[in-house]
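User: Please fill in residues for this 125-position structure.
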């Protein structure tokens, strides 16, 4: 691979209803900060045709590593509720330093929704 990594970002609109959409980003520079990548993804999602308005217009603010290529996957349908200290990306940290590699899958969600869901993880469907 010459330019950068391929990352899949899972846009989580609702944990309770398991409502999410995956979006693939190619040629991602892993040396950029998590904050820069979050800003980039936010701009791309807001203008991406094909995403329904409830997904496109949501105020996402946090990213967490869900899965890396050739690694074990979680049994949770949206994302694992474990290891937040290690897997949630910190603003000033580069993607590479956070453990993001080619073909990593990330969840992009609103932190407030995640905290509420983690305190009482139940599904509504």
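Assistant: Residues filled in for all 125 positions:
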């Amino acid at each position: 691979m010459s330019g950068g990594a391929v990352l899949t970002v899972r846009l989580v609109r609702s944990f309770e209803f398991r409502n999410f959409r995956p979006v693939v980003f190619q040629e991602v520079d892993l040396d950029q900060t998590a904050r820069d990548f979050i800003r980039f993804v936010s701009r791309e999602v807001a203008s991406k045709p094909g995403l329904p308005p409830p997904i496109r217009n949501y105020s996402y603010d946090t990213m967490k590593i869900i899965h890396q290529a050739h690694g074990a996957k979680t049994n949770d349908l949206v994302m694992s509720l474990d290891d937040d200290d290690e897997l949630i990306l910190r603003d000033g940290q580069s993607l590479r330093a956070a453990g993001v590699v080619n073909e990593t899958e990330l969840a992009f969600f609103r932190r407030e929704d995640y905290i509420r869901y983690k305190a009482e993880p139940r599904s509504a469907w």
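For context: The CA atoms of residues 33 and 94 lie 4 Å apart.
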